[in-house]
């Protein structure tokens, strides 16, 4: 034995990645790009027949067929394709047979990556038309070339198609499916788009909007009675689509509008009049996602239906309102009135200043007990980490000296390191400092003494913080009974409120800083209070 033979066990070698793969098994994958190709020619049958012939020539055993339908070649997100990849990997099948390499995919870089990933796993793609040995060193270059050419052809075809599409658009012809209310017809060999029966009802909707000033909801209700069900969102999209007044707008036109050859459903004047009215917002109110005057918007839920309340401004009155937009509910209330009631609610949670000293003492006393217990746990964790690190070092030394088999070491080393990571995580969780939490509690107490004032005088962001900290699950409001109902209050602030309420300014004065700590029994599950004001 040479001086290096005893270390041979540590030498690295090529992994036998294909040892457990059946070299003779194969799957066949066929596809065409369009439904028309699948229905109108024998392409799939031809592909399957030629693939089976190749399998016979190479003495492969075909274990399953995939594809056999039309799937887009523009993306690899194909159901049959995914199922095929999963099958060959799970069943350890080494060979995939396709009619042409571009039938596998024509998405360029993605296809190259997929084939290379399969090759690394010992799975090879065989092509009838590009019949090269996929296991040879040069095969990767050839297959990549075929795929690149396929992608180039796709780009060329797409450019030609887009150029033809643009030309048709410039001539006034609509090139895709017509919007709701129109039908494609052919007269004297020329394509025409005409208004159908649904379009006649939509025409009535335009006239209702232009002449009667009805809302989209009211129009939708009328149309439903006539047999046409449309949402207000769909109606809004129809009213803003210039196709209905004989014009064409398309992304290929790059922001331009042209005259179309389709039948007009309404005149340009009616279309323009409707959209001018919509732009002016003739109801006199506007919605905002963030509004200093409506801090409770989407935070307060309607007590009658559970829907988050939105807000709006009536410009003519200079007033703001909260409203439930759920159809059939429509709860509505003055923002001024709801704000006053919300301030009263916050005021009930304001901490009694006379209770600050005993509350502070109670919290700090509890923290001392918690951190004392935490320190003991931290020491135990550190001791466990040290013992485990020593065990791992001993195992490494035994492996180096040849006293432990590599497989045994790998097995136990993996378990030890996993346990060590868990201990490191536990140690990190127990590393919070008492001084940091004391600062947070001091901030919490300061916060709790003036909740109502802080919300009333604060900006929009401050109001949002107060609301979310005190009521993390939100609150509900009844416009009929005019009251708020709280679902859940922040645990720490609720405890402060409970202690504070026991101190009356008239009947009880704190005689000592030492207070009853029964409110703060060993704190499990206390929520953090984050301010960020």
Short description:
β12 and β13 form a beta hairpin. The protein is built from 17 helices and 15 strands. With 533 residues, the chain is α/β, with parallel strands linked by helices.
What features would you describe in this structure?
By secondary structure, the chain is of the alpha/beta class. It is built from 17 helices and 15 strands. Among the domains are: 22-156, Resolvase, N-terminal catalytic domain (Rossmann fold, 3-Layer(aba) Sandwich), CATH 3.40.50; 182-280, Hect, E3 ligase catalytic domain fold, CATH 3.90.1750.20; 286-347, no CATH class. The strands form five sheets. The protein has a four-stranded parallel beta sheet, with helices on both faces. Helix 7 runs antiparallel to helix 8 (216-225). The radius of gyration is 37 Å and the shape is flat.
Q: Specify the overall morphology.
A: flat
Largest sheet composition: 4 strands, parallel
Which class of secondary structure composition applies to the elements?
A: alpha/beta
Q: How helix-rich are the residues, as a percent range? A: 40-55%
Q: The CATH topology of the domain at 22-156, please?
A: Rossmann fold
Rg to the nearest angstrom?
Answer: 37 Å
Name the CATH homologous superfamily of the domain at 22-156.
Answer: Resolvase, N-terminal catalytic domain
Order of strands side by side in the largest beta sheet?
Answer: 2-1-3-4
Instruction: Give the termini distance in whole angstroms.
Output: 74 Å
Tally of DSSP helical segments: 17
From the coordinates shown, what is the CATH architecture of the domain at 22-156? 3-Layer(aba) Sandwich
Mean pLDDT: 76
Strand content: 5-15%
CATH class membership of the domain at 22-156? Alpha Beta
Oligomer: single chain
**Poorly predicted segments:** 15-21, 36-41, 72-77, 282-287, 504-533
E-strand count: 15
